[in-house]
Write the structure tokens for this entry.
Amino acid sequence: MSDGEQIPPAGGDQDTGPDGLPTRPREFRIGRAAFLATVAAGVGGIFVAPALSRIFSNPLSSLLPSSLGDLLPGNGWRIYNVQDPFPTFNPATYRLTVAGLVERPVTLTWNQITALPGAVQTSTFHCVTGWTVDGVRWEGIRTHTLMDLVKPLPSAKFVTFQSMEGPYVDQLSIEQFTLPDVMIARQMDGGPISRAHGAPLRLVIPDMYGYKNVKWLASITFVAKASAGFWEQRGYDIDAWVGRSNGYG
Ligand SMILES: Nc1nc2c(c(=O)[nH]1)N[C@H]1C(S)=C(S)[C@@H](COP(=O)(O)O)O[C@H]1N2
Ligand SMILES: [Mo]
């Protein structure tokens, strides 16, 4: 089974979403609930009525295999990845490269990353397919902290975020990157970011749809030219402002 789901390509004529279900949120949830009920029946031998809230709070979910538990965290999140398996975080070998058009490129170890000053914020997370999670508590490194460290050159106009998950990449303009509520998150809801949610680091930009919030960060590169991210190559807007971008959210 897949570790996660993929969001669908955007576009005028497309009407299916992850798992081939309709993208409109209501139908989407019903389809998902029915899927979960079927799985729960298979694992526990008991059929659970397909009401999403009851399923998510049902103790049966703790009996699900771990990859499925990751898929259905039970708090409104849906776990997405574009390649199996999820990347693995090893604190001893993990490196974050921050480089490109900068005076002082760095490759940071996990110890160095944890030593950087951090900030906390609570923000709402919106996926472009229509689901939202309120009150997510993030702890992480503010982008000005990283900029002070590497000192981008004047020619740097965009910032590219490469995931440890090979094909997944996205980009922000420098202006977007330096918005006050953007961070490189180290913690989520009071603990380390889980593997499914992008351990050990994910980009957080609450003003933009989820697909900009790259999980399993491997590198941050300052560049001169714009380039389309994974979902943008598949039709989603490059500027993914919540409420002002294409998609269904
Ligand atoms: N590496 C990577 N980052 C990613 C994705 C992905 O598939 N791979 N999906 C994006 C999308 S579309 C959303 S909505 C969020 C979902 O976050 P979650 O999987 O932690 O719920 O992650 C974003 N970051
Ligand atoms: Mo998303």
